[in-house]
Design goal:
The protein is an alpha/beta fold and about 375 residues long. The chain has a single domain, classed as Alpha-Beta Barrel (TIM Barrel), CATH 3.20.20.70. The protein has 13 helices and 13 strands. Strands 3-4-7-8-9-10-12-13 form an 8-stranded parallel barrel, surrounded by 7 helices. A 3-stranded antiparallel sheet has the order 5-6-11. Helix 4 links the parallel strand 3 and strand 4. Helix 2 packs across helix 4. Bound molecules: flavin mononucleotide (FMN). The site of flavin mononucleotide has 28 residues, from strand 4, strand 6, strand 11 and helix 11.
Amino acid sequence: MDVTYGCLRPLLFQFDAERAHQMVLTGASMVGRQPMLRAMARSLYAPSPDPALEIELWGSRFSHPFGVAAGLDKDGVAIDAWAALGFGFMELGTVTPGQGQPGNPRPRLERMPHHRAVVNKLGFPNKGAEALANRIASRISTIPIGTNIGKAKSTPMDRAADDYCSVLGTVFDVSDYIVVNVSSPNTAGLRDLQSIQMLRPLLSRIQQENSALAAQKNTRPRPILVKIAPDLADEDVDAVADLAVELGLDGLVATNTTIRLDLVDPLPSVQGGLSGAPLGPRSLDLTRRLYRRLGSKIPIIGVGGIMSAEDAWQRIRAGATLLQSYTGLIYEGPGLIRSVVNGLSHRLRVEGFSSVREAVGSGVGD
Ligand SMILES: Cc1cc2nc3c(=O)[nH]c(=O)nc-3n(C[C@H](O)[C@H](O)[C@H](O)COP(=O)(O)O)c2cc1C
């Protein structure tokens, strides 16, 4: 951990977790707006460029594979700060239609420092897709932006597709890729959408809407990815992978938070999704399983318990092309960016790979 965050973290951890998060977002949004502060953030934290880490994917150029996970900046209030800190890309959202929604009652976020974990049952509090689209449109940075889209709590399950399509329409122009979130444990019924019987029609509808929007705007359809839960049974993971191939999806995001709260002791008082170090092994396994099934046909974004450069490297070897972190940033601070990116550069050289692409999946079958 860098010295600055080493001093800041004990102060932040004195506050309730959600309050601390709001303070970080407020600070980051200030950094994003001020050229001087952006320059400072860049010089303190941004990793040095390494051509071996560059990735061309979905028509976008990623300067390196490490990005911001969904949920950290749901409304895109600090886009230019994340870019200045040196992330390779960011995923914003989850956003829902219209003016968004307040989410579940508080308290709904709890730190478990002994486990380097967090439990949340936020339930997609967000200001809505249009507010996010406006923020993305007014950013100055150019790193790729994914938008993670969801269903409102008040929308009945049989109208879920309407919500996803509505949000897609709103963020289409400003998003480099779209993630269909069917794996948050904090919206009743949402994860049922991962069953093939529900997922096939949902994704087909979203793909139709995507093609219609592309034709109407005379542009290319946006890459569509699906984010899955670490709690799926292995055969359900395989079924989702096969469906992704069948429908020609552009990627999978593995994984969201887990409902396996027994991975931490004592049990948290917030009953929601667990993230951070205890999630790492399952997310890693699931990435490996998906890669075994998909090979390089469909890229995987690996997320869940990436707390160090070593975790990031193992995730690449397991088959992830891109990586994201949320909880790692809570515990390690923005120094994690440089440590992951420089660590990946180092490992590539030591292991004799000429590019990160070459290393993707290299550990599968070991
Ligand atoms: C407080 C919090 C809020 C989150 N909100 C979202 C969300 O809105 N949409 C989503 O797809 N994932 C969300 N996630 C899940 C993360 O994107 C990520 O998949 C998960 O936390 C595992 O990564 P980590 O161990 O690096 O945190 C959230 C995670 C946390 C901790």
